[in-house]
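ok so for the tutorial part 2 we go from a plain amino acid sequence to predicted structure tokens. step 1 is just haveing the sequence, like this:
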Amino acid sequence: MKKPDEKDHQKVIVTGDVTMDWHIVQSDSQKNVMSDWDPARWATVRCQRGGAALLADLVERLAGRIKNKKGSVHTLFQTGAPKSAVLSNDPDFHHNHVLLGKFAAGSKQVWRVADHLGLDRRSNPHEADWQRVIDDPADGQLVVLDDANLGFRDSSAIWPQTLKKKGHSPWIVLKMGGPWLRDHCGTTCWQNILRN
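step 2 — the prediction. this is what the tokens look like for a chain of 196 residues:
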């Protein structure tokens, strides 16, 4: 296979609001039942990176498949969000709590979010080092942003350099939630992008 030239090598940056997702699963017999102790009933909780971190994991897997099929090279840059579980009360993270349930998907049963139980917002008011993109390039060609209205859009200290570089126009893919039209003294991420 030939070595990819510069146009075949894409720098992809995935960043934005990160959550730690807490998936709660319980036995089918436990749903909608108030009863005494029964050791046959079970429940479990699992932690998974969510938001921009989960999106980065997905992009990384897709980029690997594209490389294998097309021979192009994609270098992924993402935040330093931990890949292992954190404590459920860690003040540096937003903690998203969901109840999972079984749903039909054709002839199979799959686990999906059955109920969103709520968000425990991070209590640390300062940007943490893990929120910044590791080895942040100033010349990324594609920026994938996850904006859940949890602070990323208003925290210019954690925006990737590619978005701050004057005259640089990367492709931007946006996954968003929460109110988009907002004026915060002209400092939101979107106003910065429009100015460049």
